[in-house]
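Much of what follows relies on a compact textual record of a protein's fold. A complete example follows; check for yourself that the lines match position by position.
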Amino acid sequence: MYDNTVNVTFYMHDKVLIGTVSLPHGKRLSDFLNGVNGAPNTDASRFIKLTNVTVCHNDGTKENVETAHVNKSNIEIVATPDGDVVRGIGAQMSPKHYPFIPKTKVRASMTMPDFDVAGYLYCTKGQNLGDVIEDKIEFLPVTDAQIRGTQIDVTRSAVFCAVNKEQIGSLYHE
C-alpha cells in the first residue's frame, strides 16, 4: 500500500526533522498532508510517520532516530528539495490521473512563529490570496519557496513546501 517514498524536511518550533515519508501508491504529498483523495492522513490521523530521521535541534545538536511520529499541528512547514511539482510531489503515473486545473501563480510571503516563507501560491479562476487562505485544506502548497528562520539562523530553498495554515501569522502579496 505504501510504495512511494518522499524525502522531506519538517520545520517545527524547536527543531527541524529531516527524513522520509511513505505515501500510498499514486498519492501526492499535498493530498497526504491534507487527507484528500482517499489518503489516510485524515483528521482522525493527526500523526505523520517519518523514517530515517535526523533531528536538528535549535541549539545546533543533531541526533539520528529510526522513526518519529509527528503531530501535524506542530509542523510549521513541510518541504522537499526536489520532485515533479507539475504533477505533485509523490504522484506517479497510474490509471487515475489528477485533473489539470488552470491556476494563476501569485508571489506571496508568509510570517509564522519561527519561520518566514516566500514563494508562489496558486489561485484558480476568480480566486485571490484571501480565498486561498480560507480554503478548507490544512497545508497550503507553495512552490519555489525561500524559508528563513526568525529564531534560528537557517535559510533554505525548496522546490515545494506545504505551509500549515494554523501557523501563519500573516500572508501578503509581494
About this structure: The longest helix spans residues 29-34. The mean pLDDT is 84. The domain at 2-92+100-173 is CATH 2.30.30.100 (SH3 type barrels.). The chain is about 5% helix and 55% strand.
